[in-house]
Amino acid sequence: MMMLEEGKLQLGDPVSKYIPEFKGMNVAVLQGPAPAPGAGAAAPPKFYTVPAARDITIKDLLTHTSGLSSGPNISFWYIVSRYIAARITAVAEIAPTSFGSGK
User: Is 47 helix (H, G, I), strand (E, B) or coil?
Assistant: First the structure.
């Protein structure tokens, strides 16, 4: 919210403006009927994807309406942490260090 007050971002900004990997997200659509609750060890449900009608916005993230999962399998913060790790790795691959570690 501080960045909003400072004019550094707007609630309507697409997240992809700051994290390009969020451009062109897809939406999972259940294929066939959902398994009945308590069905036991039935096969997991199958999904197909379709393009999202619009990009996820900052407001969507703040109001928990982005569609990103928040369960034990994947979450927004997991995606962000992977993005940051990938960026650090990319920099480390192209930027040599000034001196050897521990020297």
Answer: strand
Within 25-72, strands assigned E span: 26-31, 46-51
Residue 102 CA to residue 92 CA, distance in Å, equals 17
Q: CB of 76 within 8 A of CB of 59?
A: no
Say if 56 falls within a structural domain.
Answer: yes
Q: What does pTM read for this prediction?
A: 0.59
Domain count along the chain: 1
Q: How far apart are CA 33 and CA 46, in angstroms?
A: 9
Please list, residue by residue across 65-78, b when 16 or more beta carbons sit within 10 angstroms of its beta carbon and e when fewer do.
ebebeeeeeeebee
- pLDDT bracket for residue 77 (50, 70, 90): low
Q: Is 102 among the domain residues?
A: no
Domain of residue 79 covers 2-33+44-94
